[in-house]
Amino acid sequence: MSDILCRWLNVELRLSKTVDPRSISKDFANGYLIGEVLHKYQLQGDFDLFLKSNTANSKLNNFTLMEPTLQLLGVSFDLSMAQAVMREQHGAATRLLYQLFILLQKKRKAGLTGTAMEAMQPAATAFLHRVENDIYSERLRTVVKREADLKLQKIALKYEIKGREIYDKSVMAHFVEEQRRQKVQEEMRLQDIEKHRHARRKQHEMMTRIQTAIIQIPKPPPNRTLKALEKQQQNRKKQEAQKVHMEIAQFEKNRKKLSPAGGFGTSSLSAQHMSAFHGEAPRNHGSQLQRPEELAQANSEYIQKIRQRLEEDATARQQREKRRRHVLVEQLKAHEAQEEALREEQLVERLTRQSQLERRLAVQLMQLRQQKDVLRQNRVFRERQYQEQRLRDFQEALEREAALARQASLDHAEETRKEIEVHDRIATERAQARYRKHSASCREILEQIVDLATKAGEYRLLTGNLIPGKLMREWKELMFCGKPLYDSGSLEELPADPTPEQFIEVEKQEILNNQDYDEYVSMTGEWTWPEEGETKPPPSNNNILGHVVLRLQTIVNPPKPDTLPPFFPRFTLKACVLGKHFSGKTTCLTRIAKVHHIHILSANVLIQEALAAHQLGKLGRESPESCETLATKDIDQVEMDTEMEEESSQGSGPLAQEPQQQGAKKKPKLSVRAQHGAAVEKFLRKGRSVPDELLVDIAVEAIRAIPADSGWILDGFPVDLTQAKLLEKALGGSDTGKERKKRNKRSNLSVDSNAPKEPPPPSPVLDLALLLDVSDDHVLDRAAKQAYEEESSGLAGAGEESCAPAREHNVVIARDKSLEKRQIQHRITAFQDTWPKLEKWFSGKQSILMRLNAEMSEDMLFRKVESILYQVMMQSEKGEGVVLDSGKAPAVSTALVQVTPVAVPAPAESTSTLTQEGLTPPVKCSSSKSNSCSPKGGAVGHSRRLSIASSFENAHGVTSSTEPLAPTSGTAHWVYVDEPLPKEIPEYLVPYWENVCNSYVTNIKAVLQNLRTERILIIHHLFNIREEFKQYLRRPDLKQEFVSQWQQNYNSIPKDMRDDEETKAELHQRLDDLRERLWDICDKRKEEAGQERAAIMCDGWLEDHTAVLINHFSTLMQVEVDRFQDSLRLLRDYYTGMYKQVLPEAGPEFTCIPLLDIVALEEPGTQTDKSKSSERVTKSAGKRDCEGDEKKKTKVVPLIPRRPPSTEVASMKQKGFQDPDEKLLHDIYQTALTAINNMVSVEAAQREAEENEEAQQQMDRERLQRMSQASAAAAAANSGKDKKKAGTKKKGPPSPAQEPSPPPAPEEDSEEVCKRAIRNKIRQEYAAALDHEDSAVKVRVELVKACALCMVRVLHRQAEQAFRTMEEWLGARFLSEMNSIDQLAEVVRHHIESAAKLQSELMLVCTDFFLNGDMRVVVSPPNPPRPAPLELPTDSTLTILQLEAFYRQLRKVAPTGVQCSTDFWEILQEITSLNMGTNALPDPWMHISESQLVELVSMLTQNTEMLDWRQFLLSAALPWPTPTLPQLLQVLARFKMEDAGATGSLTEEQYLKVELWFPSERALSIPEDLSEPLPYDRLANLRKFFFLLFADPDCSPARVDYVTMLLYFAAHPDPTQGFVRALSVVMGQPLRHQSSSRLLKSVPYMEEGLSESTELEEEVEPQGGPRGEEGVSIPALLRVICHGGAWGACQNRFHPNGKSPDEYREDFVKVYRELGYKVEDKIPFSILSQHPVIQDLIEGSAQYQLIDIHRALQVQQSEGEPLSLMVS
Length: 1768
Description:
Elements: H1 2-13, H2 24-27, H3 32-40, H4 56-73, H5 79-86, H6 92-110, H7 114-120, H8 123-143, H9 147-171, H10 173-213, H11 226-257, H12 269-277, H13 292-351, H14 356-463, H15 469-480, H16 500-522, H17 543-556, E1 571-579, H18 585-596, E2 599-602, H19 603-619, H20 624-631, H21 635-640, H22 642-652, H23 654-666, H24 672-685, H25 692-704, E3 710-715, H26 721-732, E4 768-773, H27 776-796, H28 806-822, H29 824-845, E5 849-853, H30 858-878, H31 880-899, H32 937-955, H33 984-1033, H34 1039-1051, H35 1055-1058, H36 1061-1097, H37 1101-1137, E6 1155-1156, H38 1167-1174, E7 1199-1200, H39 1206-1214, H40 1220-1290, H41 1310-1394, E8 1402-1405, E9 1408-1411, E10 1415-1416, H42 1440-1453, E11 1458-1460, H43 1461-1473, H44 1483-1486, H45 1490-1501, E12 1506-1508, H46 1509-1516, H47 1525-1538, E13 1545-1547, H48 1548-1553, H49 1578-1590, E14 1591-1592, E15 1599-1601, H50 1602-1609, H51 1615-1627, H52 1652-1660, H53 1674-1681, H54 1685-1689, H55 1701-1714, H56 1725-1728, H57 1732-1739, H58 1749-1754
Parallel strand pairs: 1-3, 1-4, 2-3, 4-5, 6-7
Antiparallel strand pairs: 8-9, 9-10, 11-12, 13-15, 14-15
């Protein structure tokens, strides 16, 4: 979001300061940039008053000025938001800018200005905003300190510091001087010490040298040397070894004595020694001996120990010997080093000895050296003079060159400056254009928002704040479509040439019609089923009808075959690198081509190569070198030489053309590249740019020439979106530039679910589109730098231009670059114009775009691009299998298309031919893309043959035991009947169906538009009658005249007469007469108003418009019935045409649904619509005349009376109809259902007649077969008799009788059988389609009836509500007038009784009673309610609300109760540094320092990484009564009594029933003043807070573990006492522990006092000593030790108690065993507490130490004392 905002601020708005996402809060803290944003949108007219500095006055001024504008825009901007932005709170400025961005975008679309928004703002809202602005300004001034106050504070602080410094200088000068003197003395002493240390070091070194010079090492005292000590130790070990040997020898002797031969006697001294060695005291020393096995085992163990000890002694001796030798070797090396140093010193002394002769020779040599130095110095001086002369000459030359270079650089800088100015001017123009466009969009959006607001406000007044949801949906749709909400033109009489406003109105009506139609079709919005009725889903799609329509359309308009994509070899990389000019594309790609051998395709190079190929093809005899020379010519050079070539060609004439013609005859055909070059040259000679199509062809041809398994990159191509689309089409074959024609779903009433789906969009042809992004300034810098380098290199090499032919190429390139420099501005502008669309193409549709910041060095850019290309190539290699398949796809598809062509049946065929091989007819594939012609054609055709064969077998009685269930008609597995149709049928049915669809949609939209108009008319009419009645009630009356006359008469009576009682009685009587007269006037006005209301109710408007609504819904039913009849006729003609040559005759005319008779209408605006409804005609769309008769037979719709006769009213009420309109709607609905059922029954009867006719024909055929069989049998019998007669006459041997041959079975025509099976399936499919249409139209008609009833009821309800409102207004006004009369009577009676004159004028204005016209008399208001009790913070004590806020935040961060100390510190610092408004923390919390926070957190954590925030909240909740141990045990007992199920937890209801150690209710004094709140009961609310603190919110309902809660309350200032208290709570009885800790001071926030420990001892003492105690078990210890989340979560191995529960259990098991108890036993606490492990745990249990946070907050650290948070 920050990036979007920064792009908006920096690119679109171009603020005065560039905004960075990391410094948004800081940049917008003073409000100047926010004002500038509003000023950019022409909303902040006083922007010149904004201040740019960051002072407090600037912030106050800026935020005060911008607040009205933000309120006008609708931004939720208040004081807290302003404070958050000024304090640079994270995310505050971003949220404010995001709201501004959204609202300003809408304003730009609306096109509103600030003045227009203020003008359209209601007066009440504007007044409210002004009041809020004043309040905001005052509060902002109180919150934000003025700059003068801040400066005064700084000055006061400065002088305070200065005074403190002066005081320190004056008072502590002596002290400072003394410290300085002591420091000097200390430095001198340290220097002396250092000198002495240095002297001692030198002396030590001297002594060391002396000692090292001595060969003999001095022998240390014998008893103190290491060697002596080792010798003594060795002697001691030898003695021990000798002793051991002696013992072993003695042992052997004793063993021999104790052998079996000697028997078992009394134990000897050695046996006693052995038993003592093993620590076993013999039971009977004088009578018993050990067994032999035990003795042998003890002996072996003893011997083993002796051997082990000997081995250790030997190893120790070896180690000592090694150490001794090492020391001797080191001493020997040191001695040798000392001797070597001594020898070197002696050698040096000998060498440095000189004789007298050597000294003389040295003097002479020195003299000779001096002479040579003088000669050398002279020579050097002369050379230096020569060198200086040369340097001066060279310096002058350099200065001349530098002057020329400076001049050149100045010229270059001037050119660069001019280029930058041009660029800035162009950028400014583009920014202004963007701003204008953005401003226009914002204005349009704001206008639409204002229109929506005003429209909603207007209809709130019209509907009484109950705007229908339908109207809101319509307004939103118009707003989203960018259409105005208010009517801008009239559509009653649309002329032939409509105005733009009328066009807009037509578009609006079309949008609303489409929305209504979509809701009607999907049964949503207004067309949902009413709540009181049965809800039915929308009718599903009729798949059979969809298949029929699709097949007919396919026959009439066969689809065109898809074109195959072009074939290309496989490439490892397909990419393009784009960017601005001088972004480094060519340089980087050149290096990549050299390193990785990737082909680089540049458009300019390809065009040059094409031109060169064309030139080479024309010349025919030039060498490749000349071709290369031609290729180096640029396109611009070709354009410049075009005219010269044309003139030369014209001057040569026909003589020059003849050789060309002869050469043309001889030269071969030009290549594709040469042809492209010719086309390019043709365009260039005409002065036109190369077309995009030609550029793409050249690039594609170059790609085709690239070998397979290699990569290519396009350099700077494509340039715009057109080239990108052309390239996509050329390489991929998909025409993405043309939008696919989408069929209008509204015009097609049925869709084939099995129709072929549209193929998915092809994958992009490129693997990567890389953008090298550089800024415009960087481009200009690079261009200027390159031009400067080329100029300098050109000056340097100007004299060598003619030396080599390659220089010519350089000159051409230099001209090229200069041209590029001149065109750089236009190229930057062109890139900025074309890149947004290209970016959307590559990033949105293809998702192959990658950005790279190219503002870096060439090497780094090369490495970045190389890595990106490598990643893309790796990704393409991973998907290599898919790529190969897609690459082979074109060849396979081509083969498939060649082998299996699509066969389209001839339209003239009427019947399907049958195969001669079997009874199954062949299935012909029609041109429609149905299931039979799908890619799975074999399987589908087989299933179809099986279905037809099965139907044939069923017709002949053949059944199969394993026959599967046949699919139902219209399902996915149903095989449709696609028999051939006559040509005339599809040609007629397709336009017929299109006409049906269009007429259906048009009629539905027309009816819905009429309903929409009627709804608006009803709303306006109801509002108008209410307003007119309200104005009628406010008509003037004559009451004031009577009152004024009575007051004048009263005041005319003298004062002395007014005091008379009889006069007062007379005046009271006159007053009663006046009141009666006024009441009569009120009664008469009430009667007149009631008559007016009755006239409005009986004007007939409601009945007329109810009839109009019924007619509209009747028209909807008529449209649905017409659509059903048209669908029925289409299906009947389609299925009949597949097996009949002659179509059936047209049926009867279309059924007409009756309408209500509307005779006279009073509303002139609806005359046209209602007359149209009453005079609706139906066109006979069902005519099947072959000649195309154009005559339209019309029939007037039948009309029914609007009001039923009186005889039908009683019967109507008996049937349950309370309203005659409902009866009319029901009758119309029944008429539609009857018409639908009649059509269905007619079709069923016709189908049954056809089946009966076929059955009769079959019976006739079978009867003929039986007759033929009978005649054949009779003929056979007659022939047999004749043979018998002939045999008797011959009298020969009887010949064998020949049996009569049976008559041949009649062969049934297989073709007729298949036709019959097809006809049966056609009837089945037709019946299924007809049933679907029947159910669908019945659902639609029923929905229309339900919605009509609902709308009629809503109309009646609205009218009744309006009439009821009129009645309420009438009654309320009458009562108000009567009350005002009574008030007047009371005032007059008071004056009469007091005999005072009526000084104030009495006025009865409408329903109010005024005195003097400006003082209204009203009833005294009731007393205001007492405010709720509120807790005020005192000192550092937190309120309950603040504690709950702490709990919610900590619970959200750490739900388990355990939190890291670092996170807790951050949360605490954030809370204490923020001002939470009215719920601000106390001052000690708000002014806590960072060191205090760190110390507080460290004391809470107790040297662990985690802490328990519940312990912190418990300490922060102080003061609360601290319980004693007996109180804790009593509360525990109450909790257990309440916990009947012994679950260990209680609900809040159970918890509140238990009395804690402090009273839950206290008697508080109630203040007498009702404006004062009740006193706050802190203890009662603390009790609820304790449940919230320790309850588990995850349970439902929340439950609290009361033992765990009491463990928290067992905390004590002394952790030892806290541990004992906690263990007592767990055990359920008091325990006693003799603590040796120091005495404890009292806690100011605890009520326990100093006597708690003594009191506890006194209470515990009667329990007795350890014998009366109950033991402590291991689970109880574990629960106490592992209490507190921080101690259970901290597993720090460096913490002394950082153990897991299992480790604690192991320790306790060891303790119990050491004390002689079992694990399951219970040990008295007095015994258990004496164990060292338990004592350490008790003393280290810091989780039971109560911490005084409030005392820590009140401690001042001015004296430098350490802060102690412990209660001491």
